[in-house]
Design goal:
Its EC number is 3.6.1.-. Keywords: Hydrolase. It is an enzyme of class 3 (hydrolase). This is Primosomal protein N. It comes from Rossellomorea vietnamensis. This protein has 24 helices and 34 strands. Strands 15-16-14-17-18-13-19 form a 7-stranded parallel beta sheet, sandwiched between helices. Helix content is about 30%, strand content about 25%. The longest helix is centred in the last third of the chain and has 18 residues, at about 720-740. By secondary structure, it is an alpha/beta fold. It has 6 domains: about 5-110, GIY-YIG endonuclease; about 110-170; about 270-445, 3-Layer(aba) Sandwich (Rossmann fold), CATH 3.40.50; about 460-505 and about 565-700, P-loop containing nucleotide triphosphate hydrolases (Rossmann fold, 3-Layer(aba) Sandwich); about 510-565, no CATH class; about 710-800, Alpha-Beta Plaits. The mean pLDDT is about 85. The protein binds a DNA duplex through strand 1, strand 2 and strand 3.
Length: about 800
DNA sequence: AGCACGCCGACT
DNA sequence: GTCGGCGTGCTC
């Protein structure tokens, strides 16, 4: 095996294939598939993944691999195959699929240097370049670029005076600490000590301390030693110099949970309903079969305990478990439950960790130092090799769908891996996605139901308040009389309230009260939103920013003001109405700092505030006994989005939020304010009636030919020139239409809901199909031909199979 | 994606 | 004549 097939780190259509390289003798046998390597590619050096080994290359003259980047492959057989599967299913580049499966730290960084060619001296160079190349040092390309001397350098490179060096750097560094070890056998320590000069008292003390603190030959942190002994590094240095101590750099894991202890918890006894639900899971584990279960359990019905005990069984069989939770609910509370039960066997992967921390957690998984991983979407790629169960909590959450390439859904990946490992996949939710519930009704998934709350407590009572009615009665505030009175009541009783603001589609844009003018982004067809932090108007999509106008640019009226309700505005009004209330606000602004999310929640849990006011992020995981009132300020903002899942999302969110109230002994109340109280998603959420919502929504989906009745694929084209997108979109749609069967519905091309982003016009085509064996190859052709043909002209095509964002 | 190569217009 | 603009095509 002398040749390696490599996928190179160039995400482009033309390079989305393997390139063959010969393996230098010194690496023969150690370079294996799944390993990252540095390879020459054209004049550069870049990262690549070895896919397979073979005897001969496809072309006659092969370049050699420069060096491997790993000792052990980062992708095993299963993950390599999963990569190809992802590529095929999501139509992404192979390199993107591989990179999505690995922590960001493993993505290479590239650097470009210049160096004086051997045997030349600076004097031969152009005068203004000489200062850069003084003592044979490398000069970074950037430095030359900034000084505007690139053309001069180009010449020098051409005539052979200067050499360009390309270097691949690993992004993730292992963290190391300097440790000191006693380098003398115990029985000779006294001898050595006596051999020291009499004035070296500090050195003797250090030796004694080392004996004492690290008897078994364990090292001591160099930093700790200097601190404890109140000594300087020079003393230590001289001991090292004499060979009495040795210094080693030891790899350590960064510990995101440093200074935290997790109280050990033990399996709770299950209710009869839980027993019934867990039985099929356990038997699937025992039989080593693959089966997907939908665990449909109302809030507070004890789904987590089922997860925990299923994992327990898996661990007893010597296998591993993956638990996915939505990013937003990957709260310390959640982590506690798993760390509390399984202790150090748990690795945690979520976006709050630094690149280095994620890298460390990933390596713990790879080295089999943990048995359970709890994490967000990408944790589904955890490099375990003997998986016994995969659990997806809050299965309906849209954050399981990645909105950039590869546009995969964690649920699909989980089921792929479940089949590979012949293990169960558990999808848990109180409000399952229509897709999953439909599959369980058809028997594709096993349905496990928990419809009783563990404490047998009643579900909270829900009031729907018609805000139009409030307006008619002359109440122009954002709080209805009903909600306000209840709020006051809680304050008097010392109970807590959660106020939920659905920010989406409701953020603070600016509107002129006289002419209706709304301030828009000049580059994107979307309104600018007010950001208090920078006191400016900002675009969500391109980052454009401008000042807040004091008069309307259209009619010069001064009645231009914020519209919609941001959390800050609610807070202001709240302080005005209830000056004594202590309020904690949770939104992007107050939780952007690391750990602030947790701090605010803890404070609220400890009763340091009466009202918790926040956005989406408080809808989940909150479980405090003293919360007896939940208010939803405007339930219907999401309903008006151009998304066939709008009703489903609204229902899920309202159900979720309502579940925050009265989870323990005190009964809970929920007030939902809305302008469309008659909408079935709001009405049925208030009755906690998932089944009727499912029926109703299925009817709507059937009428609209949407999932789960049809699969959909969304193609979006964008280009600077409106005429061009329209033209190409039409040609493309005609081509697709000619290739697919006539039972398939093809909508468009039409302008996207956001017709322009970053000055690029966007057109889309929606394909709805039940069975379409030609779809994959047709779409590949579209990418191949149209992209190839128009990419140079600045056209981009994005294909989303099973989209969750229709914008 | 980069980067080189190559073919045309504007300059010392 | 040559410098440098960008369109074209290749990278094992």
């Amino acid at each position: 095996m002398n040749v390696a097939s490599v996928i190179v780190d160039v995400p482009a259509m033309q390079t989305d294939r393997t390139y063959d390289y010969s393996i230098p003798d010194e690496w023969k046998g150690s370079i294996v598939p799944g390993m990252r390597v540095v390879v020459p590619f054209g004049p550069r050096k870049i990262q690549g993944f070895v896919i397979e080994l073979k005897e001969k290359g496809e072309v006659s003259k092969l370049k050699s691999i420069v060096e491997p980047m790993d000792l052990i492959p980062v992708l095993n057989k299963e993950l390599l195959a999963l990569g190809s599967w992802l590529t095929e299913k999501t139509l992404c580049f192979k390199i993107s699929a591989f990179q999505a499966m690995l922590p960001a730290a493993m993505k290479a960084k590239y650097e470009k240097f210049l160096r004086l060619e051997e045997g030349r001296n600076p004097g031969e160079l152009h005068l203004s370049l000489q200062r850069f190349f003084q003592d044979g040092k490398e000069v970074s390309w950037n430095a030359i670029e900034e000084s505007g001397m690139l053309t001069l350098v180009h010449k020098e490179v051409k005539n052979g005076s200067v050499e360009v060096i390309y270097r691949v750097k690993a992004k993730g560094n292992k963290k190391t600490v300097r440790k000191l070890y006693l380098n003398v056998p115990i029985d000779q320590v006294d001898e050595v000590k006596d051999g020291l000069p009499p004035q070296a008292s500090k050195q003797k003390q250090i030796i004694e301390y080392m004996l004492d603190a690290a008897p078994g030959g364990d090292g001591i942190l160099a930093s700790a030693l200097t601190e404890v002994m109140a000594t300087t590094s020079s003393t230590i240095k001289s001991l090292v110099h004499k060979g009495i101590l040795v210094e080693k750099n030891v790899e350590v894991y960064r510990d995101p949970f440093e200074n935290k202890t997790f109280e050990k918890t033990f399996p709770l006894s299950l209710t009869s309903q839980q027993e019934e639900a867990i039985r099929p899971i356990l038997s699937t584990i025992d039989q080593e079969e693959h089966h997907t279960f939908l665990l449909y359990g109302v809030t507070g019905s004890g789904k987590t305990e089922i997860y925990l005990q299923s994992i327990q069984r898996v661990l007893e069989e010597g296998k591993e478990a993956i638990v996915l939770v939505p990013e937003i609910s990957l709260t310390p509370q959640m982590v506690h439950r798993f760390k509390g039960r399984f202790g150090d066997d748990v690795a945690v992967l979520h976006s709050g960790l630094s690149v280095g921390e994620k890298y460390d957690e990933w390596r713990k998984i790879q080295r089999k130092e943990v048995k359970v991983v709890v994490g967000a979407r990408s944790a589904v790629f955890a490099p375990f090799e003997n998986i016994g169960i995969i659990i997806i909590d809050e299965e309906h959450e849209t954050s399981y769908k990645q909105e950039e390439n590869p546009r995969y859904h964690a649920r699909d990946v989980a089921i792929y891996r479940g089949e590979f490992h012949q293990c169960p996949v558990i999808l848990g939710s109180a409000t399952p996605s229509l897709e999953s519930f439909a599959r369980s009704s058809k028997g594709v998934y096993g349905l496990l139901t928990l419809d009783k709350r563990m404490n047998d407590g009643p579900l909270p009572s829900v009031d729907i308040v018609d805000m139009r009615e409030e307006l008619r009665k002359g109440n122009r505030s954002m709080f209805s009389t009903n909600l306000f009175e209840k709020l006051q009541g809680r304050l008097e009783k010392g109970e807590q309230t959660v106020l939920f603001l659905n920010r989406r589609g409701h953020s603070s844009f600016i509107m002129c009260r006289d002419c209706g003018f709304v301030l828009q982004c000049p580059n994107c067809d979307i309104s600018l939103t007010y950001h208090r932090f920078s006191n400016g108007m900002k675009c969500h999509y391109c980052g454009y920013e401008e000042g807040v106008p004091s008069t309307c640019p259209e009619c010069t009226s001064e009645h231009i003001r914020y519209f919609g309700t941001g959390t800050q505005k609610v807070e202001e009004e709240l302080t005005k109405l209830l000056p004594d209330a202590r309020i904690i606000r949770m939104d992007v602004d107050t939780t952007s700092r690391k750990g602030s999310h947790e701090k605010l929640l803890t404070a609220f849990g400890e009763g340091k505030a009466d009202i918790l006011l926040g956005t989406q992020m408080i809808a989940k995981g909150l479980d405090f006994p003293n919360i007896t009132l939940v208010g939803v300020l405007s339930a219907d903002t999401m309903l008006h989005l151009p998304d066939f899942r709008a009703a489903e999302k609204t229902f899920q969110l309202l159900t979720q939020v309502s579940g925050r109230a009265g989870r323990h002994t005190l009964p809970g109340e929920v007030v939902i304010q809305t302008y469309t109280p008659e909408h079935y998603s709001i009405e049925l959420a208030s009755n906690h009636d998932y089944n009727r919502f499912y029926q109703q929504e299925m009817m709507m989906r059937k009428m609209g030919s949407y999932p789960p009745f049809y699969y959909i694929t969304l193609i979006t084209l964008s280009h600077e020139d409106l005429m061009k997108v329209v033209d190409i979109s039409e040609k493309m749609t005609a081509f697709i239409r000619s290739k697919l069967s006539d039972t398939t519905i093809i909508l468009g091309p039409v302008a996207s809901p956001i017709p322009r982003i970053k000055n690029r016009y966007r057109y889309q085509c929606l394909i709805k199909y039940k069975r379409e064996p030609n779809l994959g190859s047709t779409l590949k052709t579209v990418l191949d031909q149209f992209q190839q043909q128009y990419a140079s002209q600045g056209l981009t095509i994005s294909i989303d199979v099973n989209p969750y964002m229709m914008m």
